[in-house]
């Protein structure tokens, strides 16, 4: 394989990863929309798309293995391929959490919410922004962008703490809300975990650029 062909294969790999990221972002957005709007059909679509994400994960991993097998990659190229496999794994886990949220939509189907959902959609918006920026940092191979993106996790953690406290207060005040509020607590936790996976993507990008392992999930 020539250098030009190898670079094309790497670009195709990036394009596949971007496609996977786009699907996962849509799943996360749709899962929250389904929750807010009591939309079981939209929740079902999120769950169904999990198969597509799993298929893409296998396809991208296979391409990575084939790239390594066809040529003895340079150290930087090998890091690029290895980073792609790590990011794909994190995207697949994000998809799993979106499915988890969609399943919660089904569990609270038909229930009247104790209050309008405002902070959970806000947390989801911040999380989606973090995902997009983490992928941009990877595509641009920008260590600076990766570090800047990780700072968004602090905002998400603060909002998580605020939502958690409010839901605990609601359950303490009215025990009939325990089931519903506990489900919302799970949603909050799943969004927080998705943000952690975005941080993992930033760590992978830093490794790609510098060859050094960063631990930003503290």
TrEMBL record:
Subcellular location: Cytoplasm
Key words, A-Z: Cytoplasm, Phosphate transport, Transport
InterPro entries membership: PhoU (IPR028366), PhoU-like_sf (IPR038078), PhoU_dom (IPR026022)
GO biological process, any: phosphate ion transport
GO CC field: cytoplasm
Location (main, coarse): cytoplasm
Position of the signal peptide: none
Keyword hit for Cytoplasm: yes
Family matches, as Pfam families: PhoU
Function comment: Plays a role in the regulation of phosphate uptake.
Subunit structure: Homodimer.
Stated family: Belongs to the PhoU family.
Name assigned to this protein: Phosphate-specific transport system accessory protein PhoU
Gene this chain is encoded by: phoU
